[in-house]
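This part of the workshop introduces the protein records we will be handling. A record pairs a protein's sequence with a compact description of its fold. Backbone structure tokens are a discrete shorthand for how the chain folds in space. The question running through the whole workshop is how a given chain folds. The record below serves as our worked example for the rest of this section.
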Amino acid sequence: MSPIPEIFEQCLTVKATDLDEQKHVNNVQYVQWIQDIAKAHWESKANPEILNKYFWVVIRHEIDYKKQAFLNEEIILRTFVGEHTHVTSIRNVHILNKETSKILVKAKSTWCLMDSTTKKPVKISEELLRVFYK
């Protein structure tokens, strides 16, 4: 396995429903996007057998809010996996302003791999790790 993680990206445009009373993106919306990009990456890489056998749950989010985003701004959600233990994986997410490339949010989330049948943590195999690397 190559030690270089695959970078997965999605772009979106800030909508009115993403904003808070100060008219910038609500912090809760960033958390939702952090989870959405992680799920999209997983679902784009894992085959149907793996998707049926396992799922991930968040056990920790660390989020640094750097800059604000506003209505109609285009942003990039960028994610990649980092370190892992037997049952957990660190996922990094950077949210950037598409026009300026400035980082709006940096997040590091710890996810635990779960068995779909037992609903208990399960060891992350080399096969599963490979789906996230080039």
Notes: Strands lie at 8-13, 54-65, 74-84, 88-97, 103-115. The chain is about 20% helix and 40% strand. The longest helix spans residues 27-45.
